[in-house]
Amino acid sequence: MSWSIEVLGCVGIIWGSFVVLVQGIGISKIFRYYSSVPPNPVSPYLPKDEVPHVTIIRPAKGLEPGLYECLASVFHQSYPKDKLTIYFCVSSKQDAAYPVIRKLLDDHPGFDAKVFVETEDPYLHGDHGHVNNVGPNPKIRNLSRAYREAKGDIIWPLDSNVWIARDVAGRMVDKLCGYRPGGKRVKPFKFVHQLPLVVDTVTSMSSSNSEGQTLLSGSSITGGSDAESDVYVPSSILSRSLAHGGGRLEEMFMATTHAKFYGAINTVGIAPCIVGKSNMFRKSHLDQVTDPAQNPILTGRAATLPKGLDHFSLFMCEDHVIGDLLWRSDLPGYANHGLVWGDLAIQPMAGMSVPAYIARRVRWLRARKWTVLSATLVEHGVESLVCCFYVSFGLTSVPWFHETLGIPQTWKALWYFWLAGVTTWMIVDRIVFKKLHAGQSIHVDDHTPLFARGTSRGGAEKRRFGEWFLAWLGREILALPIWTWAVFLGTTVNWRGKRFRVRSDMTVVAIDPEDEEQSPLLQNGHSSSRTSTSSARGKID
Question: What is the distance between the alpha carbons of residues 138 and 501, in angstroms, rounded to a whole number?
C-alpha cells in the first residue's frame, strides 16, 4: 500500500477522533444543563436602582408560525417591567406582522413598548435623511432606529420567530453582568446568547377529508392565534414530504448536529460561535468597538463604516460579525462570549418545504463562507456519512490496525465499519434529540404555548422512530450536496425577499432590479445624499 494512502488513512482517524471528542463535549453539556429547569435569576430581584435596564428589539417580517405567542413572551418575563423597553420593528405598515404587533401592544398596556416602521425612519426617509445611510442588510435596516433610540445600555436583539421562557431575561442579564446568588459577582461577558431549537408544528398530515386533502389552520398548527392563512397538506406521501418535510429537516439539524457542536465550541471558547436568534450585549461596547478612534483593529474599509449597529449593515451574517468584532476587540475586565446554559430560544416552524430548507442552508453557508472560511471548508467532514467514511477508510488502510487488530484491508470491511459507525451516530443523535425536545429545562406556566412545552410536558408531538429516522436520514443525505452547492457553485443568496451577492470581504451587494440604482452607490461606499446629515453618516463602504 502506498504511503499516500497510509497518510490519508491516518488523517481520517485523527479527524474522526477529533469530531468524536468535540461531540462528546457538546453532548455532556446538553445532558448537564438541559435536564432540569435552571436556578432562578438574580438580577430581577436586586434593589430597584441596581437592576440594569434592558432594551429588547424584535424585528418582524410576515406571519411567522406562532408569531403572537413568540412576540408576547417578552411581556411575560419575570424581569421588572419598568426596567424593560420593548421595541418591535417592521419594514412597512403593509407587512403582515404589523397588525399582529398592534394587537399585541393593545393586549399588554402598561409596558414601555412601541413599534418602529422602517419607511417612517427620518434617518432613511426624512427630509435630512437618505435611503443609503444604512447598508443593504434588511435586518439591520429594520433595527437601526430602535438601536439609536434604545434606553439604557443593554441591548437584546431577539428574533420575532422565537419564544423564550419567563426567566430568560434575568438569566441573560446575570450572565452578561456577572451576577451570582448571594451577592457574588464573577467576570462579566461582552456578549451572551442562547441555544436555538426548532419545533416543527405541522401535525396530522396523514389525515384527509373526503376529497383526499386536509387544510390545517395556522392557529391549530402553531398553537397561535395570529395565523390568518391555512396550511395546505397534500394527500400524497411524496407531496406531503416535499411540501412540509423541510420543517422536519430543520428541526433535526438544530437538535442534533448543530446543538452538539454549538455546545462544544461555546464550552471550549476558542472562537466565536453564535446564531442570531437571541443575543445580548452593551450599546456602549458596540459603539466603542465600531469607532476607529477607540478601536485600533479597525483599519482600511472597516474604519470608514458607520458606528454602532449600522456598522454591520453591509454584512449578511451580522450576528456573527457583531460577535466576532466584540470577541477580537480589547475590552479589559470582560470575558468574550457566554452561552446561557439551560435556556432555549424555541422557534416554531410550519409549512417549510424541502426546497425551502435547502435554500435556507445554502444561504447561510454562503453567507458564512467568507466569515469563517476554514470552518466552512471542513464542515462537511463533521457530518455522519462523510466522517464515518473517513474513519472507516483509516481503519482499513493504516497497517497498524491490520497487523495488531486483524482488520481486513478490503472495501467490504470498510463498508461494514462505515455502517456500524453511522448506526451508532444515529442512535446518539436520537438520544440527544429526545433530550432537547423533552423540554425538561423549560419553566412551564399558563403563558407557555403547546409548541414550547416539550414532549415531557404534554407539548409538541413525540417523534416516533420511523418518522424520526426518515427525517434524520434525509438530512444526512442532503448535507454533502448542500455544502458542495453552497461553497463551490455560487455566491448569491436570497434573504427577506431580496437577492444579494456575497463578496470575499464578507460584505453584500443587493442585486435585485429595483436596487440597481442603490447598488453602485453601496459599492462605491458613499451615500448620494446631498444633505449634511447623510454626508456625515452615510459612508457605508
Answer: 14
Give the range among 155-159, 196-200, 523-527 with minimum mean pLDDT: 523-527
Phi, psi of 342 (to 5 degrees): 95, -25
Between the two ends of the chain, the Cα-to-Cα distance in Å is 54
Partners of residue 196 on adjacent β-strands: 345
Q: Kindly give the residue spans of alpha helices, DSSP state H, lying in 57-137.
A: 67-72, 97-107, 122-125
Given a contact cutoff of 8 angstroms between Cβ atoms, the answer to whether 12 and 394 are in contact is yes
| Portion of the chain with pLDDT greater than 70, in percent | 85
How far is the C-alpha of 525 from the C-alpha of 520, rounded, in Å?
8
> In the chain, what's the furthest Cα-to-Cα distance?
80
Give the whole-angstrom CA distance, residue 165 versus residue 346.
9
The pTM assigned to this predicted structure is 0.86
Quick one: CA torsion of 106, 110, 112, 117, rounded to 10 degrees? 10
Helix (H, G, I), strand (E, B) or coil at 156: strand
Cα gap 447→445, rounded to integer Å:
5
**Residue keyed to cell 456602549:** 284
CA distances from 485 to 108, 366, 384 (A): 46, 9, 19
Say which amino acid occupies 254.
M
Judging by beta carbons within 10 Å of its beta carbon (0-12, 13-18, 19+), is residue 81 exposed, middle or buried?
middle
- Please say if 82 is a catalytic residue: no
Q: What is the pLDDT of residue 202?
A: 74
The cell numbers describing 460, all together, are 409538541
Cα–Cα distance, 243 to 231 (Å, whole number): 10
For 323-350, the pLDDT digits (tens) are 999 999 999 999 999 999 999 999 998 8
Cα angle value 282/287/291 (rounded, 5°)? 150
Q: How far apart are CA 538 and CA 74, in angstroms?
A: 33
pLDDT in tens, 108-144: 999 999 999 999 988 888 777 788 888 888 889 999 9
Q: Which of 121, 200, 319, 324 is catalytic?
A: 319
